[in-house]
Design the sequence.
């Protein structure tokens, strides 16, 4: 295929310099579709606004933002779990030290 660009990535963004739309060879001559070389092609290309073209990027950006937020929330939960585990460990060590001191004082 010798196409210089595609619909998503046209060779040029200027609608006046883009190749005109060609009719399909699979359609019979005189079918319901009409040849819209310049007017139809240009108006349909101009209807695709910059905002529409950037929608996939915006969706991807929102998805990545949500993933980052979830990862931060999971990290916070892991830190909380670790802190509680360390606190219980310190409390047990403190109890052992008290018992050891009490045993030493009693003897």
Sequence:
């Amino acid at each position: 295929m010798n196409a210089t660009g595609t619909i998503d990535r046209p060779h040029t963004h200027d609608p006046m310099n883009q190749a005109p739309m060609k009719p399909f060879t699979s359609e019979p001559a005189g079918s319901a579709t009409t040849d819209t070389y310049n007017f139809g092609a240009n108006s349909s290309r101009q209807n695709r606004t910059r905002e529409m073209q950037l929608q996939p990027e915006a969706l991807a950006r929102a998805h990545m933002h949500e993933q980052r937020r979830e990862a931060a929330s999971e990290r916070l939960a892991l830190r909380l779990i670790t802190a509680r585990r360390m606190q219980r460990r310190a409390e047990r060590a403190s109890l052992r030290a008290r018992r050891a001191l009490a045993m030493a004082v009693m003897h």
Observations:
- Residues 87 and 93 are 10 Å apart (CA to CA).
- The first helix runs from residue 39 to 47.
- The helical segments are 39-47, 50-53, 55-106.
- The mean pLDDT is 79.
